[in-house]
Amino acid sequence: MSLKQEPKQFDNYFTIDEAYICDVTIRMEHDFIEDRNNPTHEDLIKVLKGYDRSYSISSKDHDEFTHLRDLLEEQGYIRTVRNCWNGDTVIKEFYLNGWRFKKNHRFPCAAALKNSITCARKFGWKSISSL
Question: Which is nearest to 81 in space by CA: 61, 117, 108?
Answer without folding.
Answer: 108
